[in-house]
Amino acid sequence: MERHRFPWSTGDWRGQLAHAVTDVDDLLELVGLTRDAVDLGLDAEEAARNFRLRVPRAFVKRMRRGASSDPLLRQVLPTNGEMQPVRGFNVDPVGEASGGSAGGVLHKYRGRALLVVTGACAVHCRYCFRRHYPYGNETVQGQGLEQAIAALEADRSISEVILSGGDPLSLADEPLNDLCDAIEAISHVRRLRWHTRTPVVLPSRVDNGLLGVIAGRRKPLTIVVHANHAQELSEDVRIACCALAEAGIFLLNQSVLLAGVNDDVQSLVALSERLFDCRVLPYYLHLLDRVAGAAHFEVGEDEARTLMSEVSVRLPGYLVPRLVREVEGAPAKVVVGQDVVPDPCSREGV
Ligand SMILES: *Cc1c(COP(=O)(O)O)cnc(C)c1O
Ligand code: SF4
């Protein structure tokens, strides 16, 4: 097999994952900031104990030095206030832990089953709606795997299986390959999907080992990555995503609309354009799930609509993500409609 030439070696990602930054002071030192500059108090310490800081150095390198409001830093740095209860924000905002999950299989939408493959992620995002998820007893690893496969086999309505988590690319190539083989062996499953942030935060995970796993696929595979800001999409990320595209993968992106990260027209437009440079199409822009500890990231629905209507006059239709909200009990992600606004360019007579 022709080996792809990456600027990193196969398997490098393991060491990089092991050496991810997990200490707040280490992170601040790397980005040239002090505790005072980022308002880090006792509450943030407790938040970090609750849901640990974790970020690969490859991602830290893309943060601007000395910028306390850097959009990448903001996504990973525990902040004061995370432990303060806010009305309407709770530990299970989309009703996952309380129902619908049987041994790590979530069957919420028709035709699609989502497997919680692992609780591990290369990065810990402060806004994550699964930050309080009881992964210990709700993944398909170990004994749960056989049961999960049996459940998929028994339900002929399932035509697509989504590997999620946590992050399925936290798995090594071999278990990932075995899992995909087992799923593909189920005749009524037509498509596979991976939901992963790893190609963005740790692009060296995309190496010849992973391309081997992909080359072994017999059914179409879609990879849905997760980037929230153009600054996340470094040249290494572009190389990783292009390698996936060249391997025949359909690449989509999902983002979360986050206050202080990407809640302005310029950031959203730049994100879509940079994604396309990386051969990734924007798929969803999620309104924040109201998970405890993430209230400071919320953007209101009206503001989101206005933003998206402005974004949609600046981009070709295929680069405009669908603005969606997760509603407990709804049969699909709920699309949040856009307001129609006059084109500002035509008003100025340009
Ligand atoms: C979002 C989600 C899916 C996938 O939904 P699509 O609209 O097909 O992308 C499937 N299962 C669960 C539990 C989800 O949360
Ligand atoms: S990578 Fe995804 S699942 Fe993992 S912490 Fe971030 S948002 Fe949550």
Estimate the mean pLDDT confidence. 92
Work out the radius of gyration. Answer: 20 Å
CATH superfamily: Aldolase class I
**Which CATH C-level class is it?**
Alpha Beta
Question: What ranges have pLDDT less than 50 throughout 5 or more consecutive residues?
Answer: none
In CATH terms, what is the architecture? Answer: Alpha-Beta Barrel
Which ligands does the model contain, each kind named once? pyridoxal-5'-phosphate, iron/sulfur cluster
The secondary-structure element order is HHHHHEEEHEHEHHEHEHEHEEH
Q: Structural class of the secondary elements? A: alpha/beta
What about the largest sheet? Answer: 10 strands, mixed
Q: What's the SSE blueprint?
A:
Layout: H1 12-18, H2 24-30, H3 42-50, H4 57-60, H5 71-76, E1 101-102, E2 105-109, E3 112-118, H6 143-154, E4 160-165, H7 173-184, E5 191-195, H8 198-201, H9 208-215, E6 221-226, H10 235-246, E7 250-256, H11 265-277, E8 281-286, H12 301-312, E9 322-325, E10 334-335, H13 344-347
Parallel strand pairs: 3-4, 4-5, 5-6, 6-7, 7-8, 8-9
Antiparallel strand pairs: 1-2, 2-3, 9-10
This protein binds pyridoxal-5'-phosphate and iron/sulfur cluster.
